[in-house]
Amino acid sequence: MDEVLSQNEIDALLSAITSGEMDADELKKEENEPKVRVYDFKRALRFSKDQIRSIARIHENYARLLTTFFSAQLRTYVNISVASVDQLPYEEFVRSVPKMTVLNVYSVAPLDGRLILEVNPNIAYALLDRILGGKGNSVNKVDSLTEIETLLMSQLFEKAIGNLQEAWSSIVEIDPILEDFEVNPQFLQLVSPNETVVVVSLNTAIGETSGMINICIPHIVLEPIISKLSVHYWMQTATKNRDINAYEKISKSIQHAEIEAKTILGEASINIQEFLNLDKNDVITLNQPIDHPLTLAVNNEPKFYVQPGTYKNKMSVQVLEEIKGVNVNNE
């Protein structure tokens, strides 16, 4: 893609050519020369910038959810935000984290593979200190975690699974399960060293303690949903969601609408004289044969053929069939 120059850069370039500091012929020669860009095959870029932005968008939502969750659990100031989203070889990720740290390994069915939630020891111990009633101070002794401390940390990050599930729900419904808890990244060989992973780094502050939470997502996890990590998909989904919301609102409104349903037992015609002479025990003969079904009208429109009966000691009708394209008044 051609680089777009600002007005100041254009003015400086014209000034340099006018003063003779730069030769226009040399510029033309440079333009005609083939441009070569260095490509590192060990650091294969398997995700486009568009897809990386989509992953960042998902985890911005996840950071907000995690902030609310930890604030409620720890009852102290917590602030989590996305610092960066990068794609790099798995080996480079392992080298970038401390030798002793807190690693939570999640399976994310129905997606293949597993992802890692790496919590800096400063943050991990601030969390633990608050859980145990402290002020949130951090003492890095991750290499000597007791069984109780390990259990408390595991339970905390197991409770936070719902936030990950909700953040990813806009792309895919996942069922995260905390499968492993490790402190040494060297013992955790999730994928091959050269496998491309996406690392989402979250700036985390708990009280006066700050550190990083890193989420490592291997390519194998994202591969089935790569097509969904695009602007086109997000826009299509947003339009679809608007249509669904409009449909749901109309449906709910219709469900609360009141209608009149009545069953016509039959009809009869008498003159005024007969009406005036009606007396007790007189019988009016209806035009409805006893062996024919009755008609159920909804807002005076015939909709169903029914038969009379009782249900729970109340008069009722049972629907036999729907009236389709028949005008009962013309039968």
From TrEMBL:
It is a peripheral membrane protein. NCBIfam families: fliM_switch (TIGR01397). GO terms for cellular component: bacterial-type flagellum basal body; plasma membrane. This is Flagellar motor switch protein FliM. One of its GO terms (molecular function) is cytoskeletal motor activity. Keywords: Bacterial flagellum, Cell membrane, Cell projection, Chemotaxis, Cilium, Flagellar rotation, Flagellum, Membrane. Residues 253-323 form the Flagellar motor switch protein FliN-like C-terminal domain. It is found in: Bacterial flagellum basal body; Cell membrane. GO terms for biological process: bacterial-type flagellum-dependent swarming motility; positive chemotaxis. PANTHER family: FLAGELLAR MOTOR SWITCH PROTEIN FLIM (PTHR30034), YOP PROTEINS TRANSLOCATION PROTEIN Q (PTHR30034:SF6).
